[in-house]
Amino acid sequence: KLYALYRNTKVTRGLYNTTSGLWYRDKNYDPPYKTPGGKDCHWSRGNGWVFGAHVRTLMYLPRNDSHYQEYVDTYKKMASTLKDVQRTDGFWNVSLADTTDYPGPETSGTAFFLYGIAWGINNGFLDKDTYMPTVTKAWNGLVEKALDTNGRIGYVQGVGLAPHSSQPVTFNSSRDYGEGNFLLAGTEVIKLASG
Fold first, then answer.
1. What is the per-residue pLDDT across 93-125, written as a single tens digit (0 to 9) for each?
2. CB 67 within 8 A of CB 48
3. Residues 2, 5, 7, 12: what is their CA dihedral angle, to the nearest 10 degrees?
4. Closest listed residue to residue 137, CA positions, set 177, 83, 191
5. What angle do CA 111, 116, 119 make, to 5 degrees?
6. pLDDT digits (tens, 9 = 90+) for 25-45
């Protein structure tokens, strides 16, 4: 049943972009829908949910499952694309494919991606030399820019369904799930820090 639902989302509904390795939130954002800049719409937090779900699936699915390698391959393709679209300050934009579509730091997607990439290094799915700079930039960006002195996490896009939702995203934008994602990322980063 797990794979049937996964395949329905990925293939039947066409929510997975096989070229980019990123996902559309739902059928409303499938092509021909485009961002104002003419790019595909790959929402950061939506892809964060998918990336985190791949991690959790790989944590619990037996390695001899007939679909295990597909989950691994999709996870690795996402990780590679995410590495390539990371901002220089360590964050990812709300809109992953279009840097002009609400171009600003966003914590909930960034923390999800950090969690998933750090987990991949810790569990031998991703090469440490290749991905550690991505992890370091993301962690430093979150701690230096989004974390305030009271432990609140800023730059969290509010409840929504696409890059345009709950804009503008600022240092004062905070939600529980952003803090939860930050803590989840920290659980994997601390394993890297301890060797």
1. 999 999 899 888 999 999 999 999 999 999 999
2. no
3. 170
4. 83
5. 120
6. 999 999 999 999 999 999 999
Q: Which residues of the chain have pLDDT under 70?
A: 195
DSSP at 96: S
99 is written with which tokens? 């840097």
Alpha-carbon span 69 to 73, nearest angstrom = 6
Token couple for 127: 């090469």
Q: pTM for the complete prediction?
A: 0.96
- What's the longest Cα–Cα distance across the chain? 48
Residue type, 173: S
* Separation in Å, CA 94 to CA 5, 36, 83, 115, 122: 26, 14, 15, 17, 26
